Amino acid sequence: MRLPKEKPKFAGHFYSMPHFQTPISTKLPRTGTSIFTVMSALATEHGALNLSQGFPEFDVPSELKELVVRAITDGKNQYAPMAGVLALREAVAAQFQKRNGIAYDPAEEITITAGATQAIFTAITALVKENDEVIVFTPAYDCYAPAIELAGGIPVFMRLTGPHYRVDWDEVRKLVTRKTRMIIINTPHNPTGSVLGLADLMELEKIAISSDIIVLSDEVYEHIVFDGEPHASCASRAGLANQSLIVGSFGKSIHATGWKTGYIAGPPSLMAEFRKVHQYNVFVANTPIQHGIADFMNENPDHFAQLSSFYQAKRDLFLQAMKGSRFTFKPAEGGYFQLLNYSNISEQEDVEIAKEWTVKYKIASIPVSVFYQQPLMDHSLRFCFAKNDDTLLAAAEILKSI
Ligand code: PMP
Ligand code: GLN
Predict the structure, then answer these.
(1) Mutate to test the pocket of ligand 2, among 55, 260, 387 (most ligand atoms within 8 A of CB)
(2) CATH number of the domain residue 199 falls in
(3) Residue 367, preceding bond cis, omega within 30 degrees?
């Protein structure tokens, strides 16, 4: 920022900062404002039902709120240790042990982060070097590619096709080169609702081990898997876990997206590199929230176990109410998003349709094409079903009328 030649004459005298004369050369030429921000703002402006940005309509458990307030009143308000409040790292390690039989050491192998987005950005910044290739499956959550590009890496996109969005691991093998540094997976998947199974992890493990590739596994919806299926985590296979950084988010698992608290787990060699960047990128996540969540997890060991049935009931309510509509869909296997295909209704591209329907029918969704890096006529919209039953029924009524 250039300062004006003359300083203001009086203290407290306001002057406007001059603007740069030359255009800024952007580091992210293909990036605009996130679609989640755009669609939520449009929904608010037009008073539409907002099933676009993914966040629960219901509140965090009241006991958890009390525990956070207690942490604040007890004076737990200064910096936590850089890796996070130990009690929370221990609670996260206990969850991994219980669910995947793996013993992560809270001292060296788990770090609490300011949400999953920060964990992902920090992991990529710490581990991807100039010209390294990173394999990303599309449709992909929006924060992966910009982080890779800012690190000087090259995203290598592999497109998955609906309605099943399965990964063909032989195709993945063809994309691996000497420059492949990382593969990013996301299960349960946002936006498609697909999940990876054990067979997928076995294939991934072979590829990762034979080519010495780091796996960044975005498992933020780990506790939300439907129809009796277990969540297949990279932590469940020793060989894979040894080369993986696994990301979780309390935003999803305690209905508190606004608290921006998550975690990352991985072997000491990867975690040491992660923490080198974490300490300068955020240093530590918010202290009283960490204490509150640790206490809550210790007092409610079964909280996470009921999330799958809680969200499955919402998915089923929504899809049952959609019967008779002109949309086609395959029920989500996990997470809290449902894709609806509108090919029977319109040929228009999905970004236009999502905006038009927010204004005209007062229902907001996310156009799926934004999760691809190529222009695409996907004709699918993503609806978040982490909403109260009345909202889901009202949304289905609107959609049936289209
Ligand atoms: N990954 C995926 C797949 C997500 O859907 C989200 C947010 N919904 C995140 C990461 C980011 O989570 P957080 O809000 O904890 O940063
Ligand atoms: N992850 C949320 C979603 O997929 C949005 C998070 C955000 O707005 N960045 O809708």
Answers:
(1) 55
(2) 3.40.640.10
(3) no
pLDDT tens-digit readout, 76-126? 999 999 999 999 999 999 999 999 999 999 999 999 999 999 999 999 999
54 close to ligand 2 (CB < 6 Angstrom): yes
Take residue 172 and report the two structure tokens written for it: 């993945």
Residues 289 and 329 in one domain: no
Please give the biggest Cα pair distance in the chain: 72
Residue 118 phi/psi, 5-degree rounding, is -65, -40
19 found inside a domain: no
Q: Give the end of a domain, one of 299, 331, 349.
A: 299
Structural domain including 364 reads: 35-60+305-400
- Counting from 1 in the atom list of ligand 2, the atom nearest the Cα of 366 is 10
75 CA distance to ligand 2 middle (Å): 32
Task: Quote the tokens at residue 334.
Answer: 């996990």
Write the pLDDT tens digit of every residue in 266-321.
999 999 999 999 999 999 999 999 999 999 999 998 899 999 999 999 999 999 99
